[in-house]
Design goal:
The protein is α+β, with helices and mostly antiparallel strands. The protein has 14 helices and 14 strands.
Length: 419
């Protein structure tokens, strides 16, 4: 635990789109009764800034968090998730564990373009060590396993390798590395939980989604000396030295009071994405493709934090590349977000029921479904070509080729053949 850190109820939010020229956005305050964090913009940000989310308009107000142990609006996307909190508890051991501490100890390299400092007049974040390289992935994997086992991490070099992983959201073990100036998030297997080589399967799933016409986060598998793989995912919130503001579908939909659903997210894209040359409708159509792919590949962990928007330098929003796409193998038959008029039911009939919310007529929707189903039908050949073992293919087949999913894909393909 750092002896220099003293808990305080006020910190400051900063804008790091250009890391060389940080701007103070406003004041973060801990609300002791709810343990949430509020935001109040500075006057100069109100005059010459951007609204971070729809529920944070440029007004001279103190914006309250929506619930207990949450932060206001898009600030909530800047805090670490379960893995980051776990690393912060282990390495930094702050004397108080509130949302405000987790926001601060996430450091300078978190997802998106927001930062947190103890000062309003200068950006001084909690410092994290320089990013390690790909050559360190084996060592980081071993440390991640020790964290999962509850072992202490005392060696300073080990702490330096592990600390950058606290900046990333999500529940799975992860780290951050750099190669040739490009940052990669590296995900590891979850010890005692995964039944297959999950990182390699995720890479195979992402590349299969790309074949289905989906823009995905670039990924590469990393073979580990101890067996199995890690998965390196190129950070899409970094571009030519700048940082892109990110907003999860959870924050975006909650801001406008919408249900967490694919049709609702499609309509949000229609209103807020770049409307030039039909780009908004193209992204709505791609979101429909993603929903179909998740249904056909049995990814039922497609919750609202696993979809995001990115703001470019012109402050226009776009759909972020697909990420966290992998078969969950729970055979639930229900997606995490609403699909159509039958809620989250993982059926083609449900997916077709609200297709007009994606800007598609019935014929176009069926064409999308058949195209995606045709790609997913070849999942086993594609996964094998990407190195997934026969044993893992058999485990996956019990979920992916169970009668229910085969029926959904067959129904989509029957529309294609007219049978």
């Amino acid at each position: 635990m750092s002896s220099a850190f003293v808990p305080r109820d006020t910190q400051y939010l900063w804008w790091l789109a250009d890391p060389a020229m940080p701007r103070c956005i406003g004041t973060l305050r801990l609300l002791r009764e709810t343990q949430g964090v509020s935001l109040q913009y500075r006057d100069d940000w109100i005059a010459q800034g951007v609204a971070l989310s729809e529920d944070l308009p440029l007004l001279d107000l103190e914006f309250m968090p929506p619930g207990r142990e949450e932060a206001a609006g898009a600030v909530d996307d800047a805090r670490p998730d379960r893995w980051g909190e776990r690393v912060i508890r282990l390495l930094d051991r702050p004397p108080r564990l509130s949302v405000l501490e987790f926001l601060y100890f996430a450091g300078d390299n978190r997802t998106g373009a927001l930062g947190v400092s103890l000062h309003a007049d200068r950006f001084e974040p909690h410092r994290t060590p320089p990013l390690p390289a790909f050559a360190d992935v084996d060592a980081i994997a071993a440390l991640a396993r020790r964290v999962q086992s509850g072992d202490p991490i005392a060696d300073e070099r080990e702490r330096r390798l592990l600390a950058p992983g606290a900046t990333m959201g999500g529940a799975r073990p992860k780290g951050v590395v750099i190669a040739d100036g490009v940052e990669w998030m590296v995900k590891f297997a979850e010890f005692g939980v995964d039944t297959v080589d999950e990182p390699l399967v995720e890479h195979a799933t992402l590349t299969l989604a790309e074949r289905a016409g989906i823009v995905v986060a670039a990924s590469r598998p990393v073979a580990l000396a101890t067996g199995g793989h890690a998965l390196a995912i190129r950070r899409f919130d970094r571009k030519a030295g700048s940082r892109l503001h990110l907003q999860s579908a959870r924050v975006a939909l909650r801001a406008e009071g919408s249900e967490y659903g694919y049709p609702e997210f499609a309509q949000l894209l229609r209103r807020r994405a770049d409307a030039r040359e039909g780009l908004a409708f193209a992204q709505m159509r791609e979101l429909y493709r993603r929903m179909l792919f998740n249904i056909f590949i049995d990814n039922t962990d497609d919750h609202e934090k696993n979809h995001a928007l990115l703001m470019d330098q012109s402050t226009r929003w776009s759909l972020a590349p697909a990420f966290d796409v992998v078969p969950t193998l729970h055979s639930l038959g229900v997606q995490a977000m609403r699909v159509g008029r039958e809620g989250g039911a993982s059926t083609l009939h449900n997916a077709l029921s609200d297709a007009r919310q994606f800007g598609l007529d019935p014929r176009q929707a069926r064409m999308e479904a058949s195209a995606v189903a045709r790609v997913v039908a070849g999942w086993r050949t594609h996964f094998a070509a990407n190195g997934v073992t026969e044993a893992d293919l058999e485990t996956l087949a019990r979920g992916l080729d169970r009668p229910f999913l085969l029926e959904q894909r067959a129904a989509a393909l029957s529309d294609e053949t007219g049978s």
